[in-house]
Amino acid sequence: MDGWDVAIVIVKVLVVFALLLAATILLVWIERKVVADMQNRIGPERAGPWGILQTLADGLKLLFKEQIRPNKVEVGMYLLAPVLTLLPAFLIFMVIPIGVPFTVTLGGVERVVSMQGTDLNVGLLYILAMSSLAVYAVVLAGWSSGSKYPLLGGVRATAQAISYEAAMGLALVPVVFYAGSLSISEIVAAQSGTWGGIVPRWNIVPLFLSFVIFFIAIIAETNRAPFDLVEAEQEIVGGFHTEYSGFRFACFFLAEYINMFNMSAIAATLFLGGWNGPTFGLTGFVSWLLPIIYFFIKTFVLIFIFMWVRATLPRFRYDQLMTLGWKRLIPAALLWLVLSAVVVGWRQFGAPWT
Amino acid sequence: MSDWFSEPANWVFLVLALVIAVSAVRVVTSTNVVHSALFLVLALGATAGLFLLLSAEFVAWVLVLVYIGAVIVLFLFGIMITRAPTGPNVEMDHRPRAPAAMAAFLMFIVTAGSGLTAFGDQEITRLGDGTSTELIGEQLLQRFVIPFEVVSFVLLAALIGGITLARRDASPAEEEATEEEVQA
């Protein structure tokens, strides 16, 4: 560990930070365009070509707006919540590999630089832990606002997070069975190659049900329609962020989109093979660039599904939310878990009677 | 003693231990029940830090996932749906402090004593090759499989007991309310 290694780590952190911010700017614009198109509208078109700079304009506007602080807030928690919401959002992406490692010679030593913030050997657990921390910001924002609607939003957020985290965790256990590791880079490596030269060895093929359960759970975890009871505008005036304005509100908005990007990237990594894809026998720079392109294509396809679902489905009622979570998803995930455990066990140790 | 301070890991330990001690005291002295829960989060987070210091990554992240990510969130949920959640709550401050302090002290003696008699100052060695996750899995399902199953059985019994107590003698309307609470 010398100066160059430290420099590499710092560059990685900065790249992740910049990437997530750029992705958010793009995502907000894509979402407005996609939803507008699905609703026969035009969407933003004035700022920049096709309105692509609309998000920047909105962000700047929010920066210059007055940050109102109501009288009845719990000041410490009220100011801490917008920061807390961004922390896990940025930290989750640190363990996701976006491409193949490359070697570079710095200070006379050849170094392998992985396209991943850091490769924890319990990466999957880290992702689950970080995403379970995201609910704190919502709860604390709702509670510290000292107002009725935000409190209701906070209560809804806790109930929803606990219900769907269980389904999410259970849906990921078969992935660990198949890869035999909790490390994200090894889970990606286990998905390389094809079956019979045609079907890619992605986890989505043997574990389709896991993917469906996971995807429903991450829509709920990111509080997006049809699971946006936490911030339902018509019922509780935006919920936890009712009393926030200006840049503090922008923090919540930013975190929501970063989380959507994170969760799509995680789903693409765990179920769609991450950066795996055909390289057509190319070498050198192109073979390094292709996996990164594959990773972003997969991620953005999932993000498009997120937006599609939002534009299609109306919001769930509270009891429907709980029924779906506890009576459908968790039993299905448990059953599927047992089934895939039997299959993997059978393959590894042979039939029980032999 | 200077040896102890020249080791950087010990400094990290010192900071984490101080955070745990202070926030654990604040959990019981704080008059606002939400603040108590948040100090508990701080204490548990620093405990996860201690596990990371021992390179027990699996235990550390499971602690964050289960205790901070689920148990305390449930606490907060319970606090928010049951009582007026804002402002200091003086009723939380109970008079009989001596028995509570006594119980806490005895608990400390028991855990510290058993830890010291079991390990003393011997160096802890790894149980075998492989990542800590593999080792924990193998130990839990081989050598400690019976205690492991017993603990899960006790937890199941406690769960069923909790549901039975909560649902006893409830009118249909109350029953519905409890059911939602249990589900959440």
CATH superfamily of the domain at 1-87 in chain B: NADH-ubiquinone/plastoquinone oxidoreductase chain 6, subunit NuoJ
**What is the straight-line distance between the termini of chain A?**
51 Å
- Gyration radius of chain A, in Å: 22 Å
Number of strands of chain A: 4
Read across the widest sheet of chain A, the strand sequence of neighbours is: 1-2
Mean pLDDT of chain B: 80
Low-confidence stretches of chain B: none
Label the structural class of chain A: mainly alpha
The whole-number mean of residue pLDDT values of chain A reads 84
Order of helices and strands of chain B: HHHHHHHH
Beta fraction of the residues of chain B?
under 5%
The portion of residues assigned to helices of chain B is over 70%
Number of structural units classed as domains of chain A: 1
- CATH fold title of the domain at 1-87 in chain B: Four Helix Bundle (Hemerythrin (Met), subunit A)
* Structural class by secondary-structure content of chain B: mainly alpha
Shape of chain B: globular
